[in-house]
Specification:
3-stranded antiparallel sheet; 14 strands; 2 helices; single chain
């Protein structure tokens, strides 16, 4: 009878795995699956268990030790970290029979996890108050001031509108760039009009 010796190291189906997950996904969201194989022919020599070694990454992700399924532990925020590089280790379940080995046979694969952006941030202005002056006889289209807002979400497209205080629509704003300009020509009332 020939007995199987634990001399084979688990081999991942890929040295690197690419995955993505949306930010703010609830804990337990599936990310990806890693798979390793062991050419030993009998248990426990060919029984593989997976683990994430880095404690920092283990706080964000978990791997099922038997299936290799990687899931989130917490809600992720792309504005904090856009991509994670985690190392997943596959070990067989017996002490190695390879020379000078006092542990199970193990191999590590890298998993890149990109955090996909969601529209979860409100735009904010660079200033809390903008002040400007304009001549009373300014021509229509005269630029008065340009305001600017930002949005931490990736590829956000902001649109500017005047929502209050624009009596008689004297002003308008170019909605894509935030430039406020004179829309109607303002003239002071004549003395006669003022006394009527």
């Amino acid at each position: 009878e020939i007995l199987d010796s634990n001399d084979n190291i688990p081999l991942f189906t890929s040295p690197t795995y690419l995955a993505n997950v949306s930010e703010n996904s609830p804990p337990g969201t599936y990310v990806t699956k890693v798979t390793a194989e062991d050419k030993d022919i009998s248990a426990p020599n060919n029984v593989i268990q997976y683990s994430i070694g880095d404690p920092e990454h283990s706080r964000k992700f978990q791997v099922d030790p038997y299936t290799g399924n990687i899931t989130t532990r917490v809600e992720l925020n792309r504005e904090e970290i856009k991509v994670y590089f985690i190392d997943v280790t596959a070990c067989d379940s017996a002490m190695s029979d390879r020379p000078n080995m006092n542990t199970p046979n193990c191999r590590t694969a890298n998993v890149r996890i990109d955090v996909a952006d969601t529209n979860d941030n409100q735009p904010f202005f660079n200033e809390t108050l903008y002040e400007a002056t304009v001549l009373e006889n300014a021509e229509r289209g005269t630029s008065i001031i340009t305001i600017q807002a930002n949005d931490l979400d990736e590829n956000s497209q902001l649109r500017y509108i005047i929502t209050d205080g624009n009596e008689e629509n004297v002003f308008a704003v170019r909605e894509t760039i935030g430039e406020i300009y004179a829309c109607l020509l303002y003239t002071s009332p004549s003395p006669r009009d003022a006394h009527e």
